[in-house]
Amino acid sequence: FQVKSENKKTIWNTEEVPEGSEFDDTWDPREKPEYEISFKQHVGTEDVFFGMTGKDPSTACCEDIVIKIKLPETKYSDITLDIQDKVLDLRTPKKKLLLHLPYPVNSKEGRARFLSEEEILEVTLRLSRKLDFINFS
Q1: Do 5 and 16 touch, CB atoms closer than 8 A?
Q2: Would you say residue 22 lies in a domain?
Q3: Nearest to 70 by CA among 106, 32, 107
């Protein structure tokens, strides 16, 4: 078994390193906040009454992923959020969350809003999966 690489001194290839591992810091003492993941589906009357588009309640037919993160005693200005295709990295002075997402997302299309009364950060991301043209055509 031989691994081909650009440099003979490297231990592993760049393809073998999972995306987001550069954020993984096991020595960081900040606690992990509570979070909830849900999926969102755009449904019209043609889906509800007639079933014309073939959508079902499974995550395979969902367009967006919504992540709600509880951040008590946090101000909006203290939040640092970095989103990549498969990783969400959130950091505050007291909390840290490195979340490997269940599906790839379009990191350029997304929105986040901080609900200050509930102390919740709500992040909505557009899913980017192969064969989505079958589900959404």
Answers
A1: no
A2: no
A3: 32
